[in-house]
Amino acid sequence: MNKTFTTMALLALTASAVHSQSVGIGTLAPDASAVLELKSTTQGFLPPRMLASEKALIASPKPGLMVYQTDGTKGLYIYTGSAWAPIADAGVVLTGWSTTGNGGTTTANFIGTTDNQPLRFRVNNQSAGEINYDNLNVALGFKSLYANTFGFNNTSIGHTALQKNTTGTDNSVLGTAAMSANLAGSKNVGLGSSSLHSNTDGSGNTATGFEAMNRNLTGTNNTANGKEALYLNLSGHSNTALGTKALWSNKYQSNLVAIGDSALYNNGVGAPDPEV
Question: Mapping DSSP to helix (H, G, I), strand (E, B) and coil, where does residue 27 land?
């Protein structure tokens, strides 16, 4: 009689649990929001334990799947849908970098990637920098090198510096909007805000100073040192302008040398081009 009663009671409890879609272990009243509730004051929950190599062999893991890794970086891991992510290490310290600073770091700690993927930075969810090991580009600043596709060996520091560059290579730029419009120009140096700002395809230019060679489009092999030096140059090549606003008005003439403040400021006729 007692066995029959016990069996009937267990069946009743099982039916009730199935009907409510909640199962309780250690409790007869599992929370309705949980499919399973465990209750104990003397025991804990022990998830599956395995090596990292065993974890990696789990076929088609579902997002939310949890295991405890017993080697390497030990701790609970949860599958996010694309990768296994550690929840906490054995010391219950989050493995990610804290937004309020980190203590107890060692020379083995770093911020970066462990594979051949770019390290990217964002501010307000907008592109703010990238270090790319594959194409050797380094960019720092709002939308610096933002549109780059095949350009390589570029160093770009500054707000919108080299923003439109697509295939230009070996450019070194420092300053807000420096070489901002460049598309394919290569081997240029632009130091100063808006230096070589409008350059699209000009190559081999060195512009140092605020707005130096600001309007240059396709001019090549020019040297401009000073605020607004060679400012209006469009396609002139092989010019040397040293000094504030030196060769300021020159647009098309080539092979000119101007040294001094505003030297050849209004120049419109240059020396003949030996290549013509």
Answer: coil
Higher pLDDT: 24 or 126? It is 126
- Strands, sheet with 66-69, edge to edge from the N-terminal-most edge strand: 49-50, 66-69, 75-79, 84-88
Which two three-digit tokens encode residue 43?
A: 């025991």
CATH fold of 119-276: Alkaline Protease, subunit P, domain 1 (2.150.10)
Strands 84-88, 75-79: pairing is antiparallel
Domain boundaries, the chain: 49-88, 119-276
- Alpha-carbon span 270 to 11, nearest angstrom: 103
Considering only CA atoms, give the Rg of the chain: 33
The predicted-structure confidence for 15-45, as pLDDT tens digits, reads as follows 444 554 788 888 888 888 888 888 899 998 8
- DSSP for residue 267: -
Question: Burial, 256: exposed, middle or buried (Cβ in 10 Å; 0-12, 13-18, 19+)?
Answer: buried
Backbone CA torsion sign across 14, 20, 24, 30? negative
Whole-structure pTM value: 0.66
Mode of pairing for the β-strands spanning 66-69 and 75-79: antiparallel
Give 194: exposed, middle or buried? Use CB within 10 Å, 0-12, 13-18, 19+.
Answer: buried
Phi, psi of 248, deg, nearest 5: -55, -40
Question: CA triplet 221, 254, 248: central angle to 5 degrees?
Answer: 90
